[in-house]
């Protein structure tokens, strides 16, 4: 990981190496926390902008509300902190931003009402999550044995730290089996999402992605659906079965970290021509245009840091 100079902790900029917590911090033991994953890009005019900052911060606060953590900072304060953090770290070439709401030191036991709620924001340079080659040639995916935590036993719509145990187990299983990424099914066997991304297929020119019944309410998925409509495609939000994926013409992931990553193989079945499909390519390049400030319609979603 590429280190930066400062991390924002509860209102103060702290040296990267001094950004520490007590070993008895509540979140470390019981797993209640909320995160965001937000990205800033160098724009076409040489500046740098955070994409959909407000939406990400709002989701952080929503995730915290769902998981019963009362965040002691307002949405505006958190937005301002993220802009200042990138400025102070001189991350002008773009960055990944990781806000974290966590329960700190002082209370043990599961009843967390009195535990202090702390917030940190870190940012660093982070390249393509599934690799540059994955963005061009597509990645190989395994449908894992892990069921995506159902809403009856978790806070599925929250970007809750606790949900990532489920994701980690799935990802590990897929990578150890020789694949790049994991797909998880919901408790009825329909495709839910990937370990850290949403899932789309293309069949006969129609773009299909599951509803967010058992997945994060994804910000990139919403952007890509808007973009697909702009480009004149029909988008269906409906459940997808495992075998439908195998015969799809194209498949791809969307997410802040994975951006738009093509899928070339699922469970030893080659998807389409086994390369980035033409519709995926259009959406991918359209997405990069948006985040780099080249698409006027989406200019309102960019928060410039310089
Ligand atoms: C489990 C999971 N699903 C979906 C996504 C995609 O969400 P977004 O597009 O808002 O980054 C992510 C990434 O944040 C994720 O971790």
UniProtKB/TrEMBL annotation:
It catalyses: L-isoleucine + 2-oxoglutarate = (S)-3-methyl-2-oxopentanoate + L-glutamate; L-valine + 2-oxoglutarate = 3-methyl-2-oxobutanoate + L-glutamate; L-leucine + 2-oxoglutarate = 4-methyl-2-oxopentanoate + L-glutamate. Its cofactor is pyridoxal 5'-phosphate. Pfam families: Aminotran_4 (PF01063). InterPro entries: Aminotrans_IV, Aminotransferase-like, B_amino_transI, BCAT-like_C, BCAT-like_N, BCAT_family, Class-IV_PLP-Dep_Aminotrnsfr. GO terms for molecular function: L-isoleucine-2-oxoglutarate transaminase activity; L-leucine-2-oxoglutarate transaminase activity; L-valine-2-oxoglutarate transaminase activity. Pathway: Amino-acid biosynthesis; L-valine biosynthesis; L-valine from pyruvate: step 4/4; Amino-acid biosynthesis; L-isoleucine biosynthesis; L-isoleucine from 2-oxobutanoate: step 4/4; Amino-acid biosynthesis; L-leucine biosynthesis; L-leucine from 3-methyl-2-oxobutanoate: step 4/4. SUPFAM superfamilies: D-aminoacid aminotransferase-like PLP-dependent enzymes. Keywords: Amino-acid biosynthesis, Aminotransferase, Branched-chain amino acid biosynthesis, Pyridoxal phosphate, Transferase. GO terms for cellular component: cytosol. Acts on leucine, isoleucine and valine. PANTHER family: AMINO-ACID AMINOTRANSFERASE (PTHR42743), AMINODEOXYCHORISMATE LYASE (PTHR42743:SF11). Belongs to the class-IV pyridoxal-phosphate-dependent aminotransferase family. This is Branched-chain-amino-acid aminotransferase.
């Amino acid at each position: 990981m590429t280190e930066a100079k400062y991390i924002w902790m509860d209102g103060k900029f702290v040296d990267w190496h001094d950004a520490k917590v007590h070993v008895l911090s509540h979140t470390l033991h019981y797993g209640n926390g909320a995160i965001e994953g937000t990205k800033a890009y160098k724009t076409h005019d040489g500046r740098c902008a955070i994409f959909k900052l407000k939406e990400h911060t709002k989701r952080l606060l929503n995730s915290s509300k769902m998981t019963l953590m009362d965040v002691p900072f307002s949405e505006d304060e958190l937005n301002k902190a993220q802009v200042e953090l990138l400025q102070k770290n001189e991350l002008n070439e773009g960055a990944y931003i990781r806000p974290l709401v966590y329960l700190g030191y002082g209370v043990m036991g599961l009843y967390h009402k009195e535990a202090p709620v702390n917030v940190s924001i870190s940012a660093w340079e982070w390249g393509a999550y599934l690799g540059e080659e994955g963005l061009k040639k597509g990645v190989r995916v395994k449908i894992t044995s892990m069921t995506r935590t159902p809403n009856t036993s978790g806070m599925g719509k929250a970007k809750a730290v606790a949900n990532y145990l489920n994701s980690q187990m799935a990802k590990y299983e897929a990578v150890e089996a020789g694949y790049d990424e994991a797909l998880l099914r919901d408790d009825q066997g329909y495709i839910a999402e990937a370990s850290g991304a949403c899932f789309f297929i293309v069949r006969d020119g129609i773009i299909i992605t599951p509803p967010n019944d058992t997945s994060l309410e994804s910000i990139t998925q919403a952007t890509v659906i808007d973009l697909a409509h702009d480009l004149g495609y029909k988008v269906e939000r409906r459940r997808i079965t495992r075998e439908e994926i195998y015969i799809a013409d194209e498949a791809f992931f969307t997410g802040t970290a994975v951006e738009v990553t093509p899928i070339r193989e699922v469970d030893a079945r080659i998807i389409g021509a086994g390369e980035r499909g033409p519709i995926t390519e259009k959406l991918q390049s359209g997405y990069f245009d948006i985040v780099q400030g080249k698409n006027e319609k989406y200019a309102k979603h960019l928060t410039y840091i310089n």
